[in-house]
Amino acid sequence: MARKMPPEAAAKAPRARKATTSPAARAPAGAPAAGRKTKSGKKAAAERAAAQKTGHKGAVKQRTKTPAPAPAAAPPRRKAPIAAAAAAAAGRTLAPWSAAEIEEAFRRFHAADPEPKGELEHVNAYTLLVAVVLSAQATDAGVNKATRPLFAIADTPQKMVELGEDRLRGYIKTIGLFRTKAKNVIALSQQLIAAHGGAVPRDRAALEALPGVGRKTANVVLNIAFGEPTIAVDTHLFRVGNRTGLAPGRTPLDVETRLEAAVPDRYKRHAHHWLILHGRYVCKAQRPLCERCPISDLCRWPGKNTVLTAPVTG
User: What is the number of domains present in the chain?
Assistant: First the structure.
């Protein structure tokens, strides 16, 4: 039997608090809290849909500011025109040379060097042809360094074909575009054997039909190997013809055509050698050595720094 607490103790004991639950705790999850205004069903549904889109309940979808378009990339700077192109543009504005001035210019070239020679080393017409093909976009010195050991073992089309493209690449790998050039040399050697009995033809059309052979290469071969009065226009001659005003033209063929019409016949065979060597060693692309130029007084270039002529003998 439980004992009753004396009246004095019962009066002193604290009364136990009645557990209460707040309205918010009693409310089910998602129900509005007591004392707050409830939102209409349509508005609440709209907000819940918006919250689902943003990934957060009750979150308001933020407005995103459309980024400004990135500024357009500046066009790449154009490279400065090469000296030959600049000379071509200027050459068309210069006063033409008279026949007497052209005669005098080549008389001086002849007096200084009566028998000019090309600088590509070769032992016959075939090796000359191969050397000129290899010289495209390369220096003569670089080609000579590669062809000395090559021509010691392959100086005919038959020997070159026997050497083969793979081994040929090993000899000329120091020359630019050597893979394409090796392919062309083997192909032109095969064509020479099949169509010309292994000989280099003395005909422009037949030469230009060979792989890797263009008009300039054909002109060099016809001039050096066969003594034809052809004029091969390379970068140096193109620059000289335009810069001096001697034979201005937009293309190498334009310059070639003007020179063929203007150069006296007795000087025509060596004309391209004189002009190429003049452009390579005197009328240079970056800094022309006008003080050494034998035709500076005849030259029409407005940028020349002297009109003195080199001493001419003979």
Answer: 2
